[in-house]
Amino acid sequence: MKTSDLIAALAADPVPEPIRLGRRLAVSLALGLLGALVLYALFVRPRPDFMAALGTIRFNLKFVDAAALALPAVLLLARLARPDAKAGMLVFWLFAPLALLGVAVAVELAVVPQVEWLPRLVGRNWMFCSTMIPMMAAPILAALIFALSAGAPQHPALTGALAGAAAAGLAAFLYASHCPDDSPLFVATWYPLATLVCAAAGAWAGRRFLSW
Amino acid sequence: MAGDEGVYRRLLEEIGRSARAMARAAFARARLGDADVEDAVQETLLAIHLKRHTWDPGQRLGPWVNAILRHKIIDAMRRRGARRLEPIEDFQDFLAAPAEEDPHAISDARKLMEALAPRQRDIVSAISLEGQSIATTAQRLGMTEVAVRVALHRALKALGAAWRRSVA
C-alpha cells in the first residue's frame, strides 16, 4: 500500500471517536474501587476496635500515607495517558509518602524501647497484609490499565507501574482500617513491599497492554 | 481534527511529510537505510489516526503530533534495528544492505492486508487504491454509508493491530 492510499483511507474515516480519556479513567477507577470494596467486605472488614483506634495518631497515619501515594499517582496517570504529557511537579509529590514514612519511623524509633522494635516491625498480620493489599489492588489495576489502553502513553511499562502503585495506595487505604498493626515500623516494611508487588504487576501489564 | 475530510487529509499529508523527513534522517543516523522508511511513515500515520482522541483540544496540536512521531519512529527503528542487525555477519554486508530493495516492505504490506476480512479488504482497497467515495462504495456493495464508514473504521483498527503483531 502506498502512503497516499493510506491517507485516502484514513481521511475517509472521520468517525468521531467519542472516547473522553478523563471520563473513562474516572469511571474505570470507580468500577475498580467497587471490586476492591467487594473483596474488602468479603475477606477483610474493619477491625473490632475501629472507632477507638480512630483517635490514635499511628492508626490515622496509615490512611494519610496511603492517600499521599494514591492521590498524586492517580493525577499523574491522567496526564501520562496522553503522548505529549508533561509530568511536571507532580512527580515530586510521589516522594511525599516516603518522606512521611521516614519521619514516622524516626519518631517511632525514638519513642519506643529497642526490645519493642522487632516485634512491632513483624507485627501480627504481615502475611495477610502483604497478600490482601495486592488482592484488593488487582481489580483497581485492571480497571486502570483498561482505561489507559485508550490512551497513548510514551512509556507503557512505567505508566503501568505507576497504575500499580496507585492501585496499591487505594487498596492500602481500605486495608488500613482492618490491620491491627499500627506501628510505622510495620507500615514502612510491609505496605511498600505490597506496593512494589503491585507496581511490578503494573509494569508487566503496561508493557503488554499499553504499547501502541 | 474533527473537521471536514479535505482538511483532515491535508493535515495527514503534511504530517506524513514531516514523518518521512524525520524517519529518513533518523534511519540514516542509525545506518538502517531507506528501505523501511515508508513503513515507519505509514505506522505513524495510522497511530495518529487511531489515537487522535488523545489530543486535548485545549492544547496545541504541534507538540502532540511531534510526540507521536518521535515515539513511533524510535519504536520502528528499535524493532527494525534488532531484526536487521541480527543476521549480519560482517561490516561489508552491513554497508551493502541499505542499497538493495527491501523485501520486507512488500511482504509486510501483503501480510497486513491478508489480516483483514474480505469485505474490509474490499472497502479499504476501493477507497484507498481506487479512490472511490464512501457513497459509491456503499452503492456498489449494497451497504448503507454508515455501514461502510463503520467497516472502514474497523478495518483501519485491524490494520493497526496487525501491524503491531507483525513487528512484535
Structure description:
The complex is a heterodimer of chains A (212) and B (168). Chain A has 212 residues and is mostly helical. Chain A contains ten helices and no strands. The longest helix of chain A is centred in the C-terminal third of the chain and has 26 residues, at 184-209. Chain A starts with a helix and ends with a helix. The mean pLDDT of chain A is 92. By secondary structure, chain B is an all-alpha fold. Chain B folds into two domains: 1-100, Orthogonal Bundle (Rna Polymerase Sigma Factor, Chain: A), CATH 1.10.1740; 102-168, Winged helix-like DNA-binding domain superfamily/Winged helix DNA-binding domain (Arc Repressor Mutant, subunit A, Orthogonal Bundle). Chain B has helices at 5-29, 37-50, 61-85, 91-96, 103-114, 118-128, 134-141, 145-167. In chain B, α6 (118-128) packs across α8. The longest helix of chain B is centred in the N-terminal third of the chain and has 25 residues, at 5-29. Chain B starts with a helix and ends with a helix. Residues 82-104 of chain B have low confidence and may be disordered. Classes of the chains: A mainly alpha (212), B mainly alpha (168). Chain A binds chain B through residues 1, 3-17, 19-21, 81-84, 150-152, 154, 211-212, and chain B through 2, 4-6, 8-9, 12-13, 16, 20, 38, 41-42, 45-47, 49-56, 59, 63-64, 66-68, 71, 109, 112-113, 124, 127-129, 131, 133-134, 149-150, 152-153, 155-156, 164.
Question: Could you give the topology of this structure?
Answer:
The complex is a heterodimer of chains A (212) and B (168).
Chain A: H1 3-11, H2 21-44, H3 50-53, H4 57-80, H5 90-93, H6 96-111, H7 117-122, H8 126-148, H9 156-175, H10 184-209
Helix pairs in contact in A: 2-8, 2-9, 4-6, 4-9, 6-10, 8-9, 8-10, 9-10
Chain B: H1 5-29, H2 37-50, H3 61-85, H4 91-96, H5 103-114, H6 118-128, H7 134-141, H8 145-167
